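Bench log, entry 3. Co-assembly request; chain sequences pasted below exactly as received.
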Amino acid sequence: MAQVLQNKQVLFKGYIDGVPNETDMELKVSKIELNPPPQGSQAILVKNLYLSCDPFMRGRMRDFHGSYIPPFVPGQALEGFGVSKVIHSDNPNYKPGDFITGFTGWEEYSLIRRTEQLRKIHPDDAIPLSFHVGLLGMPGFTAYAGFYEVCSPSKGEYVFVSAASGAVGQLVGQLAKLYGCYVVGSAGSKEKVDLLKNKLGFDEAFNYKEELDLNATLQRYFPQGIDIYFDNVGGDMLDAALLNMRAHGRIAVCGAVSQQSLSKPKGIYNIYNLIIKHIKMEGFLQSDYLHLYPRFLEEVSSYYKQGKIVYIEDMNEGLESGPAAFVGLFHGKNVGKQVIRVAHE
Amino acid sequence: MAQVLQNKQVLFKGYIDGVPNETDMELKVSKIELNPPPQGSQAILVKNLYLSCDPFMRGRMRDFHGSYIPPFVPGQALEGFGVSKVIHSDNPNYKPGDFITGFTGWEEYSLIRRTEQLRKIHPDDAIPLSFHVGLLGMPGFTAYAGFYEVCSPSKGEYVFVSAASGAVGQLVGQLAKLYGCYVVGSAGSKEKVDLLKNKLGFDEAFNYKEELDLNATLQRYFPQGIDIYFDNVGGDMLDAALLNMRAHGRIAVCGAVSQQSLSKPKGIYNIYNLIIKHIKMEGFLQSDYLHLYPRFLEEVSSYYKQGKIVYIEDMNEGLESGPAAFVGLFHGKNVGKQVIRVAHE
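Structure output for the full assembly:
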């Protein structure tokens, strides 16, 4: 007879405008029967171990169907990247005991029907399991594809990274340093600035909240101008960077976390710099580069094992802490990649 | 003894903000001795036949030294592209009677000291001399380099061109049609829209001044979305185009004529579309592609001679008409490429 267990869930309550609040989500305790998935369903039943908090999830809280990913369904559990352990499987690619990463529910146990985009993890003592939603997951791959493929870097170039201690930025900066670039990062607290300079190896870093005139700030850190701006924030920082780009500069537009909370984003006024300096500004999604994923996994795992890069996580304990952890992203509370530990293996 | 002649000139009076006015320029009649240039100077003395009115000249009227080209000098003649005939030469590359194109003064006769960027014209009865500042000059080459090199077109793609009947836009649209694209243009009058549809071969065209909601307009003309936007205007049209781009679209940022007159440009609010649709937005200057100039001249001359493309000029007679013709650019008065005929050969 099937085992019946409690299944705590974080439910999405309904569509929102502006910054997410904890009250937009609801903790519910359901029950779940740990039955094998129906025969022929190809589904797997998993126990979730780690859940990832990512800014893009905010986009799924709006009632907007024109994006690359559909909105959440009110009344159902949130969905996001996770690391899970297979309990039952109707899929020949996965067997009980396997570790997988990919989209899962914000709950203790999930039935995953769409298994095509899951990735099996081969546990490695040298690499924490949770890194598969960070350094070796979507954020890490975003940094990798964005830096190498969108920024077209050259050795010795001047690189600026915003939200530089975040899930993506911290790897962009380290890859740029390994590539031989000069790297400056911005972040929103003294603690983060210290991490950038002392732990992540950035050449310089500043706290944007203490700067009155971002144009002057960038002039100070880049008297010769910026070759590459890896933009994780949009808004005023993007506008200031446009003024400080060098000829033939490249801007990778990766995120606009400063703008996610605004129903009408702030205007960008310095677009004309694209013309006079021949700047390429390119938005991208890591999903456009999935053919590079195997190479990324190999290279970045190897860098990590060799101690050439580090990766900072902000780990919250328990599914209950999920809503606060997610909301914290939009207030810069997380220091490093925000993860929720749902269960110890 | 040297011949002494009247030399009418259009002088630049002083730095301005906002839209240029005729009163920012001054007509002056000087005298000039048609002496051979000093020996060893490498200079040439020319009689100017055609002068080109180009929006980029507005940038040289500001007291701003950070651009790719220095500002005009108050009290001196304006400078711009022209077609001229050599009268005297101290340069072995040019002899009296040669026709040349390149930077010259807004005056009847000019002493040209910087001859490196001049181009000798080989007169061809099938191609009007004035086309060397239009179809075969900087605007035509801007269209050519921008369309082929920046837009990376594919056959069958949906192309939108703003300021489509202008010096650059009219060629972009025709090149795109020859390439097998579907092409829609915007312009600012019924007359221009008629030209686009009936003479220049655009699939569709609209008068942006009659449209209340540019987003809805573009949705109507591009129900499937835009693959390539060749942006000659910036501002609201760029913002509306961003909303209507397809995934992996490309925006060539060529000009921002709608913004040239504003001391503070309007904001662009839809930059986040770059991310969700993986759009590349690239500013460019034709001068970055000069290695393609010979190929451009050959191909576009050949298209023209075969009747595959046409080119519309707006010809003003006499240097006196220069200031009004130039100012007219910023009010959309010109229909086609604005040229001033200074003298008949």
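The longest helix of chain B spans residues 138-150. The longest strand of chain B covers residues 79-89.
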